[in-house]
Write a structure and sequence with these properties.
The chain has no helices and 11 strands. The protein is mostly beta strands.
Length: 115
């Protein structure tokens, strides 16, 4: 069982920046992937960005060049730096941890981007 606690989020104007952070605890193995998903109002949850324990990254096309994911393997944390935010980035953002095919989720943090 892996527990995830998110921090960050909030209200920001279009063009602004926010940083999300997530700390994982519990039964964590060395090889895993962590990432961020988001669920806009009335829409399905979608991948934003992910990063493996080896440092490989994957981004949704809509955030490439604006968002940067990073992690600290020693601390079991993952962060998402979000720049040039747009109103369409408004969503609940969820931290995700995946190992041996098992997903764990944080409770989510709301990001609201005003126009």
């Amino acid at each position: 069982q892996v527990q995830l606690v998110e921090s960050g989020g909030g209200l920001v104007q279009a063009g602004g920046s926010l940083r999300l952070a997530c700390a994982a605890s519990g039964n964590i193995f060395r090889i895993n992937a962590m990432g961020w998903y988001r669920q806009p109002p009335g829409k399905q949850r979608e991948l934003v960005a992910s990063i493996t324990s080896g440092g490989g990254t994957n981004y949704a096309d809509s955030v490439k060049g604006r968002f940067t994911i990073s992690r600290d393997n020693a601390e079991n944390t993952v962060s998402l730096q979000m720049n040039s935010l747009r109103p369409e980035d408004t969503a609940v953002y969820y931290c995700n941890h995946r190992q041996f095919g098992v997903n764990s989720w944080g409770k989510g943090t709301l990001v609201t981007v005003s126009s």
